């Protein structure tokens, strides 16, 4: 993966290079290596959340200060997601695929060694920008190198990696909770080391180098825009301008629906991704060890749900899983509202939330984006919707610690509404896609088919 194909790297959106539906071991290896973007993104969010109470004590940050720290991370990830794809276009996608991960390592090292709140904030900005930038870039790398009918499964691996990142970080946070702030620093340091290891795999793995050689061979034989359809998706040069996307109904509708779904779902996901230990400490009086232990104990449920989604993503069972997953999330939020400070009730609710959140969430949002839009629009739309979603939850994170302390029932009621809004938008999008003949596992629309606004 150390060679940069300037022609590939300079395009904004790319079609899959391989026909067929069965990925081999190299494709799965690439999906995991690219999925480390989701792993490390989730890990820094959870690690910061696990350490919030301890960080507040160490640096003298109150509820609003902790909210600002969490919001800074979320905003940084949003900015990175918005700009990362375009920067990758300029420097080469494969080059960015390896460099972003090293920048992340620098940010995590600064967080691990931070002698002051100022250095901690700076590390959060650097790590967040790099994590956000790596997300759309890694998805583009996987999508181009996936067999045409296996994109859904391979892109869904990123959600499994997201859950594994949460699991590893929660377990480490629990195991090191007795060390106080030192334990949090060690978790930050572990993420820096993992980022360096990921860089080495992405750059030097023999299986990924072999896959890239095949990709270059396929690229050399793929027709460019203007040459007939054929059986293989055409090579596309350059993405559509955002103005064109926003003024074409067939692209604007799925953009707005996926964006709305992602914002509504992510308001819930980010609240419990960043603030779950803080919630248990404040609402139930749990200790740091208990709060992190609960998170670690329920994570296997999320892993199971994510693996189920990977198996069903390209089948007719996708929509039923979506409905069940979001319904379970709503039940979990209601149960939290009736918890009344009882830790056991909160644990049951959080377990249900893990099942529902990972059955219906970011994975299906990513696949919807790729199935409902031409390849020329995907990177732009994915980066835009990721950024808007992260900005929205960033603003919300500013007030979340204060809401947990002073307005918990109102917070949980709002999260129930968010889940129901996400469900409604998801069902509307499914109906819209079906009306256009877009079903799980089918080829996405071509730009000529939507250019007329149909």
Task: Give the gist of this structure.
The chain is an all-alpha fold. The chain has helices at residues 6-9, 25-59, 63-91, 93-113, 117-144, 151-175, 181-204, 206-221, 242-246, 249-274, 276-284, 288-312, 318-337, 343-359, 362-372, 375-406, 408-435, 447-450. It has one domain: MFS general substrate transporter like domains (Growth Hormone, Chain: A).
Describe this structure as you would to a colleague:
This protein has 454 residues and is mainly alpha-helical. It has one domain: MFS general substrate transporter like domains (Growth Hormone, Chain: A, Up-down Bundle), CATH 1.20.1250.20. Helices cover 79% and strands 0% of the residues. The protein has 18 helices and no strands. It has helices at residues 6-9, 25-59, 63-91, 93-113, 117-144, 151-175, 181-204, 206-221, 242-246, 249-274, 276-284, 288-312, 318-337, 343-359, 362-372, 375-406, 408-435, 447-450. Helix 3 packs antiparallel against helix 16 (375-406). The longest helix is centred in the N-terminal third of the chain and has 35 residues, at 25-59.
């Amino acid at each position: 993966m150390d060679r940069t194909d300037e022609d590939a790297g300079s395009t904004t959106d790319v079609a899959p290079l391989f026909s067929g539906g069965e990925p081999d071991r190299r494709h799965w290896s690439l999906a995991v290596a690219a999925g480390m973007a989701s792993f490390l993104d989730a890990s820094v969010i959870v690690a910061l959340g696990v350490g919030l109470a301890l960080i507040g004590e160490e640096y003298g940050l109150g509820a609003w200060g902790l909210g600002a720290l969490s919001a800074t991370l979320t905003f940084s990830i949003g900015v990175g997601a918005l700009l990362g794809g375009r920067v990758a276009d300029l420097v080469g996608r494969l080059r960015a695929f390896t460099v972003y991960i090293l920048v992340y390592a620098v940010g995590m090292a600064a967080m691990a060694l931070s002698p002051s709140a100022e250095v901690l904030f700076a590390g959060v900005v650097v790590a967040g920008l790099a994590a956000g930038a790596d997300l759309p870039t890694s998805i583009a790398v996987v999508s181009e190198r996936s067999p045409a009918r296996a994109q859904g499964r391979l892109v869904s691996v990123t959600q499994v990696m997201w859950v594994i990142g949460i699991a590893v970080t929660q377990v480490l946070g629990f195991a090191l909770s007795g060390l106080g702030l030192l334990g949090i620093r060690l978790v930050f340091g572990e993420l820096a080391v993992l980022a360096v290891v990921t860089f080495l795999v992405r750059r030097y793995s023999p299986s990924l180098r072999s896959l890239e050689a095949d990709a270059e061979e396929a690229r050399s034989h793929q027709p460019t825009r203007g040459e007939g359809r054929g059986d293989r998706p055409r090579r596309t040069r350059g993405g559509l301008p955002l103005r064109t996307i926003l003024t074409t109904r067939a692209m604007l509708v799925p953009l707005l629906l996926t964006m709305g779904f992602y914002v509504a779902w992510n308001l819930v996901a980010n609240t419990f991704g960043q603030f779950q230990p803080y919630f248990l400490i404040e609402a139930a009086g749990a200790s740091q060890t208990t709060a992190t232990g609960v998170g670690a104990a329920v994570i296997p449920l999320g892993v199971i749900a994510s693996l189920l989604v990977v198996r069903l993503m390209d089948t007719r069972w996708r929509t039923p899983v979506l409905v069940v997953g979001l319904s379970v999330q709503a039940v979990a939020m209601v149960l939290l509202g009736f918890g009344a400070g009882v830790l056991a009730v909160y644990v049951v609710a959080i377990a249900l939330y893990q099942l529902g959140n990972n059955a219906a969430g970011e994975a299906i949002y990513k696949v919807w984006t790729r199935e409902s839009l031409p390849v020329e629009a995907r990177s732009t739309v994915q980066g835009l919707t990721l950024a808007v979603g992260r900005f929205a939850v960033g603003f919300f994170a500013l007030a979340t610690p204060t809401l947990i302390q002073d307005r918990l029932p109102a917070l949980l009621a709002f999260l129930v509404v968010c889940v129901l809004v996400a469900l409604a938008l998801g069902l509307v999008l499914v109906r819209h896609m079906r009306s256009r003949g877009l079903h799980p596992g089918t080829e996405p629309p071509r730009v000529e088919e939507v250019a007329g606004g149909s």
